[in-house]
Specification:
Helix 2 packs antiparallel against helix 3 (52-71) and helix 3 (52-71) packs antiparallel against helix 4. The protein has one domain (3-190). The chain is globular and about 60 Å long. The chain is mainly alpha-helical. The protein has helices at residues 3-23, 28-49, 52-71, 80-98, 108-122, 126-147, 150-190. The mean pLDDT is 86.
Length: 192
C-alpha cells in the first residue's frame, strides 16, 4: 500500500461526504456549492490514483458548477438558449476531453456518469437531480472499481442510498403538498 493510495482514499472519503451532503440539500444553489467542493477534493484523489478520465470529468464538473453559480446570482436574467448552449458545450467537452484518457471500455463509465449529471444539474427541479443520482453513482462505482479505489466503490454505494433516500423523501413531500392542496380545494368547493 503506497502513500499515494492512502492519500487518495482519505480524499475520496472526504469528497463523498460532500457528495452525500449535496443530496440532502433542497436548494439548487446549495446542491451545486456542496457538490463543487466534493468534485475538487475528488479530482485531487484521482491525481493520486493516476485516474485521468476521472480527473478530466472533474475538470468539466468544476467548470459546469462555476457557470451554474455565476448565472444564479441575483440580477442575472435567466437565458434558456444560453443555458442549452452551455449544456451542449459541456457534454461535448466531456466526450472530447475523455478521448486522450481512454484506456478501455470501462473508461466510458465516468463519461456516461458525467453526461447524466450534466443533464440533472441543469434541471431546475432538485427531484430530477436526486433521481439521476442513482445511475450516476452506478457508473462511477464501476469506474472506481477499475481504478482500484476501494472507498470509491463503497462510497458510491452509500451515495446511491443517499440519492434514493433524497428522492423518496422529496417525492413524499411533494405528494403531501399536492394532497394537502387538493383537500383544501375540495373543502373550499364543498363549503359552497
Amino acid at each position: 500500500m503506497t502513500l499515494n493510495f492512502v492519500l487518495s482514499q482519505i480524499l475520496t472519503v472526504l469528497a463523498y461526504a460532500f457528495y452525500g451532503l449535496s443530496f440532502l440539500k433542497s436548494e439548487r444553489k446549495k446542491i451545486v456549492v456542496v457538490n463543487l467542493i466534493g468534485v475538487i477534493v475528488n479530482a485531487i484523489a484521482f491525481v493520486f490514483l493516476g485516474a485521468w478520465t476521472g480527473l478530466a470529468m472533474s475538470f468539466v464538473s468544476t467548470m459546469r458548477a462555476i457557470y451554474s453559480l455565476l448565472t444564479e446570482k441575483d440580477g442575472v436574467k435567466p437565458n434558456p438558449k444560453r443555458d442549452l448552449a452551455v449544456l451542449i458545450i459541456t457534454c461535448a467537452t466531456s466526450i472530447a476531453i475523455s478521448i486522450p484518457t481512454y484506456n478501455g471500455a470501462i473508461c466510458i463509465m465516468p463519461v456516461i456518469g458525467s453526461l447524466l449529471y450534466n443533464y440533472s444539474i441543469w434541471q431546475k427541479d432538485p427531484l430530477v437531480f436526486k433521481l439521476l443520482g442513482i445511475p450516476v453513482a452506478i457508473t462511477w462505482a464501476f469506474y472506481n472499481a477499475y481504478i482500484g479505489s476501494v472507498f470509491g466503490v463503497i462510497l458510491e454505494g452509500v451515495l446511491s442510498l443517499f440519492s434514493i433516500y433524497g428522492y423518496v423523501t422529496a417525492t413524499k413531500a411533494a405528494k403531501k403538498v399536492k394532497d394537502g392542496s387538493a383537500k383544501s380545494s375540495k373543502r373550499y368547493a364543498e363549503s359552497y
